[in-house]
Amino acid sequence: MADKRLLQFYPYLLSFVGVVLSIGVLLAVIGKNPFEGYRILFSSSLGSPGSLGLTLLDFIPLFLMALAFVVPLRAGKYNVGNEGQFLLGAVGAVTVSFTLPGLPPAVGLPLLLLTGMLFGSLWAVVPAFLLYKFKVNEIVSTISMNFIAYYLVLFVATGPWHNPLVGFPQTNQIGANYILPVLIRSPQVGTGLIIALLAAVVVYLYVSKTPAGFELRAVGSNPRASLVYGIRSDMVSALSIVQGASLAGLAGAIQVAGLLLSLQYGMQGNYGLLSLVPALISASSLLGIGIISFFIAIVDTGTSALQGLMGVPYEIGLLIEALFLLLVLFAKGYRRGNS
Amino acid sequence: MVLNADAPHETIATGNPGTKPQSIPLLSMRSIVKKFGGNLVLDHVDLDLWSGETVALLGENGAGKSTLMNILSGLYRADEGEIIFNGTPIRVRSPNDAITLGITMVHQHFELIQNFTVLENIMIGSKRKEKKESVLERVHKLASLNGITIDMNATVKGLPIGVQQKVEILKALYRDPRILILDEPTSNLTPQEVDSMLSTIKRLASSGLSVVFITHKVREALAAASRIIVLKNGRLVGKFLGSEVTAESLVEIMMGARPSSILKPESGGFKAQGKPVLVLSNVSTSPSRHRIALRRINLTVNEGEILGIAGVSGNGQRELVETIMMQIKPSDGSVSLFGKNANSLTTRDIISMGVSYIPEDRLGDGILPNMPVYENLVLGLHDSPPFKKGWMMNRDAILSTASSIVEQYRINPPSIAVMSGVLSGGNIQKLLIARSVLLKPKVIIAHNPTRGLDARTTEFVLKSLVQQSRENGTGVLLLSEDLDELISICDRIAVMFRGEIVGEVEGKEIDRYTIGAMMAGNKVN
């Protein structure tokens, strides 16, 4: 039994090895020393308490956005719009900070996080409604909402809250009362990580233990049978997108209050794309999603260090991350073909 | 001739091997072995087939009938054994190979493209380069030769399952096969249609075609086939000429033990004294693209009685159950449950009032394939006690209920954690039956609950329904295309035709040919 489960992950392990190998090859092709590259990759992501802290900071949005994708996935829906929902969460966070600047942290921080979740969810109400009412494919509608979100961020970040000291679409810093406290210094563990892990526990309880979670999985398994037995399949699948979106919104709020301290154009990085990887590999196990998200955080942190320390172009980082997704999809297809 | 069903195949005394024992058979399958995982599904099975004969391949579900023919038609490959066709050993690597050789199979699960017309479905995949007009002419000729009347330009989606079956046969005939394999071709037909189908099968063979007719119905095997080959648990347990064997001995060989034939405790004329639990008065529904309209349906199901609905599939049975379950709202008339109008309720309300439902399409409507047996058992009941406790589902109650159900119903494999999608049809049906009686329902609506099941499981399902009605006073609405089944357990039988109830018979009036006439649309006053 244990052997079988290990064997299941074998193709994914190979794709991880494949990514690491291709990093070396890519470095060699552009004339850099691949072994120096590997050293930087791993030392910058795991080599010291400080670098581990960076990896953990990268892990938070990845993990939460993977959950934002996976909750609707259990109902058979593809929330590819978690990136836009993440951005809306960030917009929600700065909105709270700039409109209610004087709140004490005990009230303000929960309000900021909840507003992030709410904004993320509201962003998903449009695709959810279109799906429920007109059966509009959620992949198309959630992706479309992403593009609107990019420009909404641009609009907010260049508006009245714009920070005039930076020549970039970015808001002023949020108030000190809205910054998530750091709990451990070395490696740095902030409240954000704890909140992300708590959110995962709540998701686990919801999906696996409650009647509503049962309905979510039932609809994902067979919407027609669910309907026949009294579950409103259309409603459950539409709501699943909104539920997932709240987690992406939470990720955006944590990113603002725990790391960036402002709303920045482009702050979504590649989290949307990368978050699909753990969700697609391990849709059924939240622990698996956590572990794989951590692996991806290592590669993501490591490749950004390669940019800084070796002068590797930014595009190589993108290339590697895209390659990662492709290899994983290939591994998934290979596994399906063999079973 | 009575054989010990458990004897190994080598020692079986067989009847005359065929109609032309001296000639070389068209096809010989020798010592075929097939394993699925660790399970031996076919254990050194031999089969000979001569030109122009009809052979019935008889056996219970899981006996290996379909597997053997799937090997011949290239869908599966044998692990051991050889196939000799026309005197030369052949390898059938794919259905395409089989079709090239002239071996065509009509499967139990239809493989028609629902959005295409009958003619397009017949033409699809054929390598002939022919004009549509000449195809049409040829298909018409084939159809009339075999007594089939279908509108060639009708879209398959709207056709009743019985008609779709005929489209499949025409499609197979269009390929000019030398061997035609029919997998359970009579499951969905009226008694009259079954008779005509059986004579069609006989007619096919007289033109030189060899026909293998897979069935678990002894009566039909005897009626249509010149030879009968019986499989049991993957082994050949008997070969007979149709003329020299009786139905009783075939049943005994096929099942290993005589089934008890009496299901109904009070035979015939049982008059339920209970109060009405489910009443439909003048219920009509609007038609849509996929649904026919119900027209002024009046039905009453009383406590402790079984009301049967007979009819060829596609005459509104599905619409009827979906209306009762409030998945379709009546456009006129009312559905009332326990004296209360149910028109404005939801499916969930209906279920929580004590109505349980066994859907016809057990894979499509009945189960959550990639969820375990224990979670499947509580689908629809997941939101009510004892399976819900506070905010959470009551896992302990669900697991212990599931364990006892798996044991009591002998669900195989005996595990509550196995994904229900991998269970066999019979075991899935046991699961659906178990679910339907789990919380002592007041009404059970069962739609074709025994379709495709072997005799043993069929008996189990019917007995469960009788038991519920007689012991718990449950009102049962049984919709079935199998008249024998309806006659064996129902107190009253109503007949549906084109969305209407065309007649209702009770007690002594219950007679298969009267009902058959109504199923064909003749109203009875």
Describe the structure.
The complex is a heterodimer of chains A (339) and B (525). With 339 residues, chain A is mostly helical. Chain A has one domain: ABC transporter involved in vitamin B12 uptake, BtuC, CATH 1.10.3470. Helix content of chain A is 77%, strand content 1%. Chain A contains 13 helices and 2 strands. Chain A has helices at residues 2-29, 34-46, 49-74, 82-99, 105-134, 138-157, 191-209, 211-221, 223-228, 233-260, 271-281, 286-310, 314-338, and strands at 182-184, 189-190. In chain A, strand 1 (182-184) and strand 2 (189-190) form a beta hairpin. In chain A, helix 3 crosses helix 8 (211-221), helix 3 (49-74) packs antiparallel against helix 10 and helix 11 packs parallel to helix 13. The longest helix of chain A has 30 residues, at 105-134. Chain A starts with a helix and ends with a helix. The mean pLDDT of chain A is 90. Chain B is α/β, with parallel strands linked by helices and 525 residues long. Chain B folds into 4 domains: 1-102 and 177-260, 3-Layer(aba) Sandwich (Rossmann fold), CATH 3.40.50; 106-176, no CATH class; 275-354 and 442-451 and 470-525, P-loop containing nucleotide triphosphate hydrolases (Rossmann fold), CATH 3.40.50; 360-438, no CATH class. Chain B is 31% helix and 23% strand. Chain B is built from 17 helices and 22 strands. Chain B has helices at 65-72, 95-101, 118-123, 132-145, 161-174, 191-206, 218-224, 247-255, 317-324, 347-352, 362-366, 373-377, 395-408, 425-437, 455-472, 483-489, 512-519; strands at residues 27-36, 39-49, 54-58, 80-85, 88-90, 103-106, 179-183, 210-215, 227-232, 235-241, 276-284, 297-302, 306-310, 332-337, 340-341, 355-358, 388-389, 392-393, 443-447, 475-480, 492-497, 500-506. Chain B has a 6-stranded mixed sheet with strand order 6-7-8-3-9-10, sandwiched between helices. In chain B, strands 16-19-20-13-21-22 form a 6-stranded mixed sheet, with helices on both faces. Chain B has a 4-stranded antiparallel sheet with strand order 2-1-4-5, with helices on one face. In chain B, helix 14 (425-437) runs parallel beside helix 15 (455-472). Mean pLDDT of chain B is 83; it is low at 1-20 and 257-271. Chain A binds chain B through residues 205, 209-211, 214-215, 217-218, 221-222, 224-232, and chain B through 325, 327, 346-348, 350-352, 357, 359, 364-371, 375, 378-380, 382-383, 388, 391-393, 395.
